[in-house]
Amino acid sequence: xxxxxxxxxHRCLNLISKSKTLQNLKQIHGQFITTGLxxxxxxxxxxxxxxxxxxxxxxxxxxxxxxxxxxxxxxxLISSIVSHHNPTQTHLAFSxxxxxxxxxxxxxxxxxxxxxxxxxxxxxxxxRHGRALHAHVLKFVESVNHDRFVQAALxxxxxxxxxxxxxxxxxxxxxxxxxxxWNTLLAAYANSGxxxxxxxxxxxxxxxSSVRPNEVSLVALIKSCANLGELxxxxxxxxYLLKINLTLNEFIGTSLIDLYSKCGSLKFARQVFDKMTxxxxxxxxxxxxxxxxxxxxxEAVKFxxxxxxxxxxxxxxTFVVTISxxxxxxxxxxxxxxxxxxxxxxAIEPKVEHYGCLVDLLGxxxxxxxxxxxxxxxxxxxxxxxxxxxLASAQIHGDLEMGEIxxxxxxxxxxxxxxxxxxLSNIYAGVNRWxxxxxxxxxxxxxxxxxxxxxxxxx
Length: 459
Known about the structure:
Blueprint: H1 5-8, H2 11-18, H3 22-35, H4 41-54, H5 56-64, H6 71-83, H7 90-102, H8 113-120, H9 127-140, H10 148-160, H11 164-171, H12 179-192, H13 195-207, H14 215-228, H15 231-243, H16 250-262, H17 266-275, H18 281-293, H19 297-309, H20 316-329, H21 332-344, H22 352-364, H23 368-377, H24 384-396, H25 400-414, H26 418-430, H27 434-446
């Protein structure tokens, strides 16, 4: 199968890019057959690329009619399937790869593997395919140690699998890693919480002569500075962003808001928010979360209402941070209204963390009976975090009955947590029931629970 220059400029190729429906594709495919373009690799690759976006089944039917397809066409279709990010279709990519292995006239090359490694990282059940592919690469790609695309794909695969030491080891073998590979490793470490390693890598990136950090690089750096409470590092990243004229997009803006909020600099967080030309739900979530942590519930609710008025749809996290803001500021009615709007207005089914926020909202305000009723009516089983919140509210309001109820449930979920016993003991101590304090201590001994350092009352 050849690809003469005349086939590369044929008028049918211009029609392909304009085709939007399956019917158009079928018409163009018919012209390919009648004009002889179906015998040339390059036009066929264009047809396969477009048809796979309109109808993958039709693309496969075209491919299956090609006599002895080249590895280039195999690679084209594999890459297109993977680029759609549809995990249910990844098996087709691996099926095509196995066809290459079974072919007597074709063998995989360095362009076959990057897409397959990417697909292998989509889901944990596919990781085994990636490990097998690594062995295949060593067998079929002679220049694997010099092919930057294959090396970068391997780094990306192991990073997505959480095998960061392996990814780093492979990364260090690349003589001049490109920006995408640097960012892959930076993001993997940032997402895993290994913030100090992100700082080390970023310094190495700055020393590299071949790349310059971009917005993706800075998001990983700022996120790590936020986790470490490194306000100075965050200031440096913000200054570097301005110095090299990078865009303050939603991702960087959200990261900076989160950083400044966690470091207690709400003024700077608000300045970043105000300077952003485009704000999404995640950006609002970060700002609301920062206000909530600092007890500014009224402001948080204003941001929530402003977000909704802008036509942005709240997500699960929005409701968690907003109801929490109401809880910490005593805005019970507002919190209840926002909780009930989840299902009534946005058709979002509340999860256990949302019910936890609701219980905390009611419990902190002293409406413990309502909080208990809410727990009873939950469509899912309450977890330990929810019961612990209820126990803490019982302690705040000195409600022995509710405290004992919550501890009973907590013992069935995590009897080894000393903090639960301490909270109940504090309730007893608050009303001078020292015999019950001693009983709680004996209960801890019976369950072989050790008191955590720094927790008082039970001594």
